[in-house]
Amino acid sequence: MIDRQEGFARMRTLQFIVLFIFLVLGLRIAYIQLFDRQYKELARTNVMRREVQYPPRGEVFDRRGEYLAQSRECYDLMVVYREMDKRGFDTAKLCNIVNISKKQLRQKLADARMSPRMPVLVTNYVNKEDKLRLDAANYRGFHTVYRTVRHYPLHVGGNLLGSLGSVSEAFLKKNPYYKPGDYVGIGGVESAYEPLLRGTKGVKVRERDTHGAIKGSYMDGLFDTLPVPGSNLESTIDARLQLLGEELMAGKVGAAVAIEPSTGEILMMVSSPTFDPEELVGRERGNNYMKMLRNKRNPMFNRAVKGKYPPGSTFKLVQALIGLQEGVLHPSDRYPCRMGYTVGRLHVGCHAHESPADLRFAIATSCNAYFCYVFRDILENRKYGGVKNGYDVWKEYVESFGFGRKLGSDFLDEGNGYVPDRAYYDRIHNGYWKSLTVLSLSIGQGELGCTPLQMANLAAIVANRGYYYIPHIVRSVDGRDSLDRRFYERHYTKVDAKHFEPIVEGMWQGVNVGGTSTAARLEGYDVCGKTGTAQNPRGKDHSTFLSFAPKDNPKIAISVYVENGGFGATVALPIASLLEELYLTDTIRRPELVKRIKDMKIYYPAYDR
């Protein structure tokens, strides 16, 4: 009796177990059917192929409507291993059409085999003619994806415009919009305005049959989205000026920047050496990129916005303006110069000129001694209660001119330059230092570092008599004035406008009456200029020149900086003068000077060893 009861209980338990299993299976099936879309999606992907539709990239024009960067049609060749004809196909013909080796093709097919359902890039930069030949050959599993490739018709502005490159893994993690194989702007305008230039990707959903062949658009394109083309940019650049600037700076290391003072628009930005942006387009991009990396002169480094140079004598303008504003200097003040400034064993040399000099003459002749006196008078002003406090005041003035910080331009990699604070000198001098300790700052030397963009902005500030607009590289987007409002705001220095007149007069005299800048004279255009020779511990001094023209209602402000160029009047001045001549007169009247500057080659110990 007990055995029968135990058997009955076991049978009932077994029945419950079986029923429970069937119940679980039933619930799972119901969940899959009613709620879980995973298998439905897998089924759909067996009959659908989603193809990304890349938009045409926006084009870039100069201020006169000339193309700086264009977009041309090209294609990526993709393969889906699962859809290929496994019985074999004419690999030699395929390789011949798209100009790749059989070894490259075998490697790509091996990669595709690892992810048989995913499209894998076989090769890029396939032109339209080759794409039509591929279509006619009808290789199963292979398809092309429309792209646009950059074309730079003037072959100028490598650092200015930037380039396009494939997205990196690190970039993908931070930017989910992009997918492996996408291109993105690298450097210059291409990077700064990437969100506008790239447009918006679309998608086309195609239907496949049981053999994987494309039947046509899925549900008559119900789920397709059209790509949105990128925006066209009108830049502030004058292509003629840019081209001449790069020609004149060829064979030299440095930068030249020109700004329209009344707007802050960058008319020209040359970093030398530069590169032809066309070299970073196409299948040779990688090889050309590596060549540039190995070049010791570093052509991919944008010295115009990232270089950090001592401004030299051009910085004397700032010293004079601070002195005038603080009341320790008057335009009629005269200081002696006996081939320099000497205090004890300290000597700052100068060249021969009449002495004593007033402010205008000191600017015109670039007298070092004069600005040593001015700088000491600023720092030792009794109202500050000590040199260190005076230095803090001086630094605030300097920063109001845009030095020691980013100007806020539309270049993402703009440099700060460097203006040391009092803590820096406390650290290196154990807390004890005085005005003579930092006297080299008076003539733009010492630890002071400025970018060529900041120096061109200084020229614009003086031209405007005390204010500037943030320098920028784009004028309009798709013909609309849609720039950030900060580019239209005036930024004032801490110096009143009235104090700029004697400075402007001194710069005008230096060019038109007699001084270090007379070679910059252009008949009828009232050019104002200031030369600079910046000391260089690693070779010949640097040559720099800062200028604007005309004196009243100025149209252009420019700074040229040539490493190891020597005196400011030797190399930087004639380059700036020729550029001003072209911009103001639409012609070059001194072709012999153009040839002499182009033929000038400079040896650079830091790069050419």
Summarize this entry quickly.
This protein has 22 helices and 20 strands. It has 609 residues and is an alpha+beta fold. The chain folds into 2 domains: 48-81 and 92-235, Penicillin-binding protein 2a (Domain 2); 239-276 and 302-608, DD-peptidase/beta-lactamase superfamily (Beta-lactamase), CATH 3.40.710.
Helix/strand layout:
Blueprint: H1 2-34, H2 38-47, E1 48-53, E2 60-61, E3 67-79, H3 91-98, H4 102-114, E4 120-126, H5 128-137, E5 142-151, H6 158-161, E6 163-166, H7 169-174, E7 183-186, H8 188-192, H9 194-197, E8 202-208, E9 214-217, E10 233-235, H10 239-249, E11 254-260, E12 265-272, H11 285-294, H12 303-306, H13 316-326, E13 340-343, E14 346-349, H14 359-365, H15 368-379, H16 387-400, H17 422-428, H18 452-464, E15 467-469, E16 474-477, E17 490-492, H19 500-512, E18 528-534, E19 542-549, E20 556-562, H20 572-585, H21 591-599, H22 605-608
Parallel strand pairs: 2-10
Antiparallel strand pairs: 1-8, 2-3, 3-4, 3-5, 6-7, 8-9, 10-16, 11-12, 11-20, 13-14, 15-17, 18-19, 19-20
